[in-house]
Design a protein that fits this description.
heterodimer, A: mainly beta, five-stranded mixed beta sheet, 6% helix, B: alpha+beta, 3 helices
């Protein structure tokens, strides 16, 4: 009986391994820039293939490379045979040569993008300095309403999951940091600490002004201010 | 006394005449027979050119086996196989695996530039065949294969009727069937190798 269990497990495990096509290589092309759209050279880039997301999920690295001085990369990778989930990592902490002062990107389910002539074209990736900063909310015009707000920003270690795209060139990042707060009418300003986000990234702020009646929620996108090293919202 | 000497001389002349005739005929017959040369060798391969083998591999010494059947007109036909191992030193040029075993097998043909009776031999030949690159890393196991052509020049010296030594140089061009992006085809589908070999020669029916 034990023999059959061992053989059965061995068969299950071996059937879950990634197999590779003979006489075949894939090419992954893309480029990386910082938040100011300048090319980002010398970042490690790796491609992984996995058999799925279940219990017996095997993941193997299939291609390795670096961004060139013009920020582009071309990764030559093995071609998985069985249906595989493809993932591309840029500057991940597990990678050799990774720069810890900068953020990272994990592009999941690249297989959904589809290949053309054995080539995957990756949308432009933005990676910039990992920073801790502040959100300053100041009262300038409105002196009577209470401000209720909710903010969100992408973690410096970004996840771009192509199985959760909201549009053909857009994606949703499940790795978001969110917070909320309130500025009572008695206070003129408040400061909120923001941790581990990417310099030059946009911060999203949803707010509503309350004065007896609840107003509609409005959203704004706040741009990072390098000169003062913070985000500022004035109302 | 004189007649005895004469008789003896006549006997010796007849004997040598017969001997020469018999063995001369044997030599002539031998010249018209085919003979075989077997050459196991030790090889040192070098990758040439701007291609995956030249840019991503460290080639290790290997082995070569060659069998040639020489015809009376000095033309030969044969079979040739060689094998060597290679370590991947630059995985970003080929994909993520770490070693490859490389095999070549050919049908060969060529010409002996020096006559059969000479102890020194010099042959030039060509081969057409098949190559396979068996790629490995832990549980990763796949291959690239394709057509291969080669040209070689071998010098050998015969120490005895059956044993000699061989020194060779060989150029191999591989045309792999790898399917990939158009801009990578030239890089991943071609390989050129220059071998130097040193080996033993076994002569059969030389």
């Amino acid at each position: 009986m034990r023999f059959y269990i061992v053989v059965g497990l061995a068969l299950i495990i071996s059937s879950c391994q990634v197999d590779y096509e003979d006489n075949s290589r894939l090419l992954f092309k893309g480029d990386v820039s910082n938040g100011l759209q300048n090319p980002f050279p010398d970042l490690p880039v790796e491609v992984y293939a996995s058999t799925g997301e279940g219990v017996f999920n095997f993941t193997e690295r299939v291609g390795v490379g670096k961004t060139t001085p013009d920020g582009s990369f071309e990764i030559i990778a093995l071609s998985p045979k069985n249906p595989s989930y493809l993932q591309l990592l840029i500057n991940d902490s597990s990678q050799e040569g990774h720069k810890p002062e900068f953020g990272s990107s994990a592009l999941r389910r690249l297989d959904i993008l589809g290949e053309k002539e054995a080539t995957y074209i990756i949308p432009r990736i933005t990676i910039d300095k990992r920073i801790d900063t502040f959100l300053e909310i100041k009262r300038t015009d409105n002196l009577s309403d209470t401000l209720s707000f909710r903010y969100r920003y992408e973690d410096a270690d970004k996840i771009l999951d192509f199985s959760q795209r909201s549009g053909p060139d857009d994606y949703e990042n499940p790795n978001l940091r969110v917070g909320s707060g309130m500025l009572p009418s008695a206070l003129d300003e408040t400061t909120i600490e923001l941790f581990d986000l990417t310099a030059n990234d946009t911060l999203f702020l949803d707010f509503r002004l309350v004065n007896g009646n609840v107003s509609e929620t409005t959203g704004v996108e706040l741009i990072y201010k390098p000169e003062s090293d913070n985000y500022v919202f004035e109302f | 006394m004189y007649s005895n000497s004469k008789r003896s001389l006549a006997f010796v002349l007849i004997f040598f005449g017969c001997f020469t005739a018999i063995f001369g005929q044997a030599d002539e017959e031998k010249q018209n027979k085919i003979y075989v040369r077997l050459t196991p060798s030790f090889t040192v391969p070098f990758a040439l050119g701007d291609n995956f083998l030249g840019k991503a591999y460290n080639l290790k010494p290997g082995y070569l086996g060659d069998a040639r059947v020489f015809f009376p007109n000095r033309v030969y036909l044969g079979i040739h196989g060689n094998f060597f191992k290679a370590d991947v030193t630059n995985i970003d040029k080929v994909g993520d695996f770490d070693r490859t075993n490389i095999w070549h097998n050919y049908l060969t043909g060529g010409y002996a530039l020096l006559p059969r009776e000479s102890k020194l031999g010099l042959d030039a030949g060509l081969g057409l065949g098949y190559t396979i690159y068996a790629n490995r890393r832990q549980n990763i196991d796949f291959h690239d294969d394709g057509f291969s052509a080669m040209a070689d020049l071998h010098a050998n010296y015969r120490f005895s009727k059956v044993v000699g030594a061989d020194l060779g140089v060989q150029f191999t061009k591989d045309f792999l069937t790898t399917e990939t992006a158009p801009e990578l085809e030239k890089f991943l589908k071609n390989a050129s190798i220059l071998y130097f070999s040193l080996g033993l020669v076994i002569y059969i029916n030389q």
